[in-house]
Amino acid sequence: MAEPLLAVRGVKTYYGSIMALKGVDLAVHEGEIVTLIGANGAGKSTLMMTICGNPRAREGRIVFDGRDITALPTHEIARLRIAQSPEGRRIFGRMTVLENLQMGMVAAGRDADPAELDRVLAFFPRLAERIGQRGGTLSGGEQQMLAIARALMSRPRLLLLDEPSLGLAPLIAQAIFDIVRELNRSRGLTVFLVEQNAFHALKLAHRAYVMVNGTITMTGSGRELLERPEVKAAYLEGGRREAATTGH
Amino acid sequence: MALRAARDAAIWGGVALAVFVPLIGLQAVQDIRGELRLDTRWPLLVVLVAMVVGGSLVNSLLIAPWRERRGRRVPHENAALARAAAAFGRWFPPFAVGFVIVFPFLALWLTGMQGSVKWIDNFGIQILIYVMLGFGLNIVVGLAGLLDLGYVAFYAVGAYAYALLAKEFGFSFFTLLPLAGILAAFWGIILGFPVLRLRGDYLAIVTLAFGEIIRLVLINWVPVTNGYAGISGIPRPTFFGIPFNASDEGFAAVFGLEFSPIYRGIFLYYIILALALLTAFVTVRLRRLPIGRAWEALREDEIACRSLGIDTTTTKLTAFAIGAMFGGFAGSFFAARQGFISPESFTFMESATIVAIVVLGGMGSQIGVAVAAVAMIGGTELLRELDVLKEVFGREFDPTQYRMLLFGFAMVLIMIWKPRGLISSRAPSVFLKERKAVAGSLVKEGHG
Ligand SMILES: Nc1ncnc2c1ncn2[C@@H]1O[C@H](COP(=O)(O)OP(=O)(O)O)[C@@H](O)[C@H]1O
Ligand SMILES: [Mg+2]
User: Fold this and answer.
1) Is residue B403 in a domain?
2) Contact assessment for residue A166 and residue A177, using Cβ atoms and an 8 Å cutoff
3) Where's the ABC transporter domain (chain A) (predicted)?
4) Domain boundary residue among A106, A124, A155?
5) Which positions ≥6 away from B191 have C-beta within 8 Å?
6) Whole-number pLDDT of residue B103
7) How high is the pLDDT of residue B113?
8) In this prediction, does ipTM exceed 0.90?
9) Which residues pair with A9 in a beta bridge?
10) Residue B445: its pLDDT value, please?
């Protein structure tokens, strides 16, 4: 198998003296959608932030495209075209949609392509309609779209998505997953997706990992994991029920 | 409702009476023989209790219903109002700039040679210094969102830099102005480094301490700064080498005019006006550049900034440095205008006033900052003029001593009325039609 685009090897991350990641191994190959599922507090967001260098891994290595990025400052990691749509979206609320999108271009540095705006907006017609509106006044789903679109503005080689479906109505969440699938299909975008919404995430992903308490406990193709009884019991029944209740 | 209001007022009046009788109504004084005597101050007591009762009535009959109505009102987009606001935003700045440009001549024309000194010097120059300081601090606090309570330090650095270098080496004002700015910017970076990781309250405390440190150094480094006594005889700016004095080489004599201090006043007025306009112009330009956009993004979300590839360290340091530079400009102007400086001019009160101007103006809005500076500084100057108050409160009453009380009162009112400052809406810095050009500027600037 070819070198993975992103390789996480034996990564341990601490918050003070508490170990949040207890030696995580994981790989994302070019063109893949890989998802990481796990319960609240498992350490999914911590892994995503550790990849971006904030907080730093105390042990282990993170390699992107053959380069060790474990000790790189966050903004330099972003400039290697690892774009992130962080947990809680973190859009710039007082800035307009257009300004938010342009902030996303910073990471591209000299390679920034003004035409990228139109290409990104083609995937998000709702944002195109609201181009002059302030980010903070968008609906939750639109804000999530904006966070993803902003991340896309630098033409990332790897897109990190942290719980894009959090707090969204199932239909909107579905729309966002569809966009991610479309981005992967049409542009070959590599995606690392962190989700609690296991059912949708596993259906979308080529490969998946399950995290429990800061360690990876299972891995396999998305379809495989969907069928596993342990996964069903722990993540899917509850997830489906939740989807059913919020659907009303 | 009237009944309830009356009852509330009566309760408040009773409480006030109970509290004020021992505190205000009775006063222990020593008479000539050194014996304690109990004096009474019933009239003052009556006035204060009446004020409390009146305040309670005003609150329950006017303010409370108004607030309730306001709270119930459904917020709706009033198209006409929005258009009016937009027109105001477009027309007010050029109009205001036009007004301040003709202001000295307007003052001369309306109040004559003698009368206009007050308007040009006490009002015009004084206000413009604070407008400039407000603009400078606005970059740090309003745009980058870094609460700096020690801004006066850079003002002091600029002032002392000009005073010392001008006296030692005899350089002219316009040579030293950029130098003072660079020195202040340098100190901005010095302050910036240790506070890079701090935000909000912690940053505020450290910057406050920084301001005090600079002031204490100025007081104690006597061989250089002359301590409390300050530096006097600071050279004044000249008109291309022509001094503003009564001598034969003076400005008035050279231009065949009768000598008057007003010429220097007008000259200084235009210098500070030019400096303030420069600051405003630079800020407007910077906001459209990647660095300015990065400042504003930093104010909103530092973590998001970093994950988007923005180097938050340089972003913060440039904000501190550029803000400090404008503070330094203002400081050297201040030294040149006064001809005398001492540490007393650079107390925390100054920092607080400038922060108040920025917050009151609406954090980031230049028009807001300018209006707030006019209101606060102009208001202070006006207080000096209000002889009416002397008639009411007695001869020894000095209105300027109540300045801070009135400031505080005014600020509380404005913050109730407009919690986000006078001009709280942020103008976008890019629009769709110019997006190609702006995106192009991002390409050139790798730094963000
Ligand atoms: N900034 C932090 N400081 C201390 N502990 C944290 C911090 N962020 C997360 N944690 C802890 O680390 C663990 C993993 O959290 P997180 O990565 O956010 O989980 P997930 O994203 O899977 O829900 C949790 O126990 C959480 O309490
Ligand atoms: Mg999380």
Assistant:
1) no
2) no
3) 6-238
4) A155
5) B150, B153, B207, B210, B320, B324
6) 92
7) 80
8) no
9) A61
10) 39
Closest CA to B316 of B171, B448, B409: B448
Residue A240, pLDDT > 70, answer: no
* Residues of chain B that touch chain A, judged by Cβ-Cβ distance less than 8 Å: 290, 293-294, 296-297, 300-301, 303-312, 426, 428-432, 435-436, 438-440, 442-443, 446, 448
Is the pLDDT at B402 greater than 80? The verdict is no
pLDDT by residue (tens digit) across B356-387? 999 888 888 889 999 999 988 888 888 777 76
Q: Is the pLDDT of residue B266 over 70?
A: yes
Dist. CA B53–CA A147, nearest whole Å: 55
Q: How far is CA B190 from CA A29, B186, B259, B316, in A?
A: 45, 6, 45, 12
**CA separation for the pair A103, B415 (Å, rounded):** 32
Are residues A37 and A101 both part of a single domain?
no
- B343 lies in some domain: yes
Let me know: does B364 contact B143? Beta carbons within 8 Å.
yes
A181 shares a domain with A210: yes
Separation between Cα atoms, residue B128 and residue B329, nearest integer Å? 12
Q: Is the pLDDT of residue B440 over 60?
A: no
Give the type of residue at B222: V
Of A84, A96, A105, the CB nearest to B307: A84
Spell out the residues 6+ positions from residue B351 whose beta carbon is closer than 8 angstroms to its own.
Answer: B149, B150, B151, B152, B208, B211
When mean pLDDT is compared across B81-95, B225-239, B278-292, B340-354, the lowest value belongs to B81-95
Task: Considering only residues B41 and B102, tell me which one the structure prediction assigns the higher pLDDT.
Answer: B102
Distance CA B365, CA B371 (A): 10
- Phi (first) and psi of residue A225, to 5 degrees: -65, -35
Q: What tokens were used for A190? A: 């590599």
pTM here?
0.84
What residues in chain A have their Cβ under 8 A from chain B's Cβ atoms? 52, 54, 73-76, 78-79, 83-84, 86, 90-96, 98-99, 102-114, 117, 131-132, 150, 154
Within this chain, do residues A63 and A18 fall inside the same structural domain, yes or no? yes
| Residue B25: both structure tokens together | 């109504």
The owner of tokens 């300050």 is B230
Task: Select from A35, A46, A210, A215 the residue to mutate for testing ligand 1; criterion: most ligand atoms less than 8 Å from CB.
Answer: A46
Beta strands in A16-131 (DSSP E): 18-28, 33-38, 59-64, 67-68, 82-85
- Statement: residue A246 has pLDDT above 50: no
